[in-house]
Amino acid sequence: MWGTVTKVVLLGLCLSLSPSAANNDWYKNSLIYQIYPRSFKDSNGDGIGDLNGITSKLEHIADIDADALWLSPIYTSPQVDFGYDISNFTDVNPEYGTLDDFDRLVAKAKSLGLKVILDFVPNHSSHEHPWFKKSIQKIKPYDDYYIWRNATYVNGTRQPPNNWLSAFGGSAWEWNKQREQYYLHQFAVGQPDLNYRNKDLDQEMKNVFSFWMDRGVEGFRIDAINHMFEDSRFLDEPSANRPDLPPDDYDTLNHIYTKNQNETYTVLSSWRKLLDEHSNKIKGNYKMLLTEAYADFDLTVKYYNAGSTVPFNFMFMAELNNQSSASDFKRLIDRWMNNLPSKDTVANWVVGNHDNHRAASRYGKQRADQLNMLSMILPGVSVVYNGDEIGMLDRDFTYEETVDPAGCQAGPDRYYFKSRDPERTPFQWDNSTSAGFSTSNKTWLPVNSNYKTLNLDIQKNSLISHYKVFQDMIALKRTPIIESGSLESILVTEKVLGVVRRFLGSTIVLLINFSNSDVQVDARTWLNIPEQLLIYTASVGSNINSGTKIKTSSYVLPGASSVVLVSSNVF
């Protein structure tokens, strides 16, 4: 078997071979690690994660050889939507620390070779933002910073301007007594939508980018970008014909007037220009833009041409699940790879995030490693959510425990369809109090009770663990064959997907068994690979031993398992 020391040596060799981290193309084969700050590490015992806690754990992110950490919102906020309702875009929420704390985090990250990416929330502010308070009073130029509309009246009764619905349920319009108009909020009532047709507002938000870049931020993940503009006619949206849903549920309408408007791409292009101008001040300091849009494939890919480095590919969450077949995975992988707009754009593979159930819960414990293995053997950018590197699982919540506004708004009968609390529980560092997340027994969300047996400390000290598989895969990602090699996805059988990378006579193969039963495969014939290959790593629970040679023409792949095979000249 390949020992830990050997793996470390190989990792060092791979890093020395990889040119991407040292130049303006650093992002093209990168690993982006998402941190949900409230749940990562609490440094002061108040049960809430904070910046100093993140700083104290940056070595973990360096140990998994991530290129960048992306922080979910840290801005000043009344926390109606846990940071996505921002009352000051250029300061840190006191629960998380101060700007000085942020500067120390950036400095330490830089010393460890890590770039810092911030969440940027352009669609809305908090209702506590000074801009909104001035807009209510019609103080110029703030009077037009938000989307205000007059009421309609039916038989003398005041009604919202149209039938638009909030993503959290209910009308997207809220009456303001002082201004005597409705304002638009596509999310919580405390999140009024900003008006990008106002040039002053547009410039204000550009100033926010510059503020954080001047503090050392190397990129931004743009939240809910496809909600930024609405059709100026304010027409009613058509029904989605969903009689199975309550009438005020967001999914009862087709959102053709509140999402995916063409002006969004124009504004994004202006942001790309701004970031590039800042990058040019420091040679080779490319600023990354990651865009979040749950949209049809064609609309998502269109963000590349508007300047997005990474238009998030949500196929593992939004289109595929534990019932998807090998052919489903192949079809969607091929679709993404075949539709990249140019040779300069790179694919990306999002394993999980703070808005979707955890990968190990979505696909099952036996398949907890599958998405990480896929995301790092496929070309381009891998995006992993904190905790997915150790196979963390969702925690079940009662309605009484639920704090997520999407879950609370849905009510006791439907909260579990909407709540994002299950995937946001604190990171499980060890088996001490509150999983090592906090010294307090009471944390903002309860720690998953499985932390005694599922935590980073145990996995780092185990011969076989999700963490070890993750380390194996990032070492492989750093080799020239993953960075520059060819790609083929092939159905070895109806139940088994093969992903093959080739470069200068070297071969890497990922085999995934989508059935729960053992399958014998002739991978040599179907994948055109050597008769003998080495088992490099395999998913936890597969009982496959690394370091052994196998005969690829008649290999039995255990049920629900994933295995990586390599030729001896890969490293």
Features:
571 residues, alpha/beta, 28% helix, globular, disordered N terminus
Strands, total number: 23
Helix content: 25-40%
Q: What strand order characterises the main sheet?
A: 13-12-11-5-2-1-15-14
Question: Taking all residues together, what is the mean pLDDT?
Answer: 95
Can you summarize the main beta sheet?
A: 8 strands, parallel
Taking all Cα atoms into account, the compactness measure Rg is 24 Å
Label the structural class. alpha/beta
Q: Beta-sheet strand percentage?
A: 15-25%
Distance between the termini: 16 Å
Show unreliable segments.
1-22
Count of runs of 4 or more consecutive helical residues? 18
Shape: globular
Short structural summary:
The chain has 18 helices and 23 strands. It has an eight-stranded parallel beta sheet.
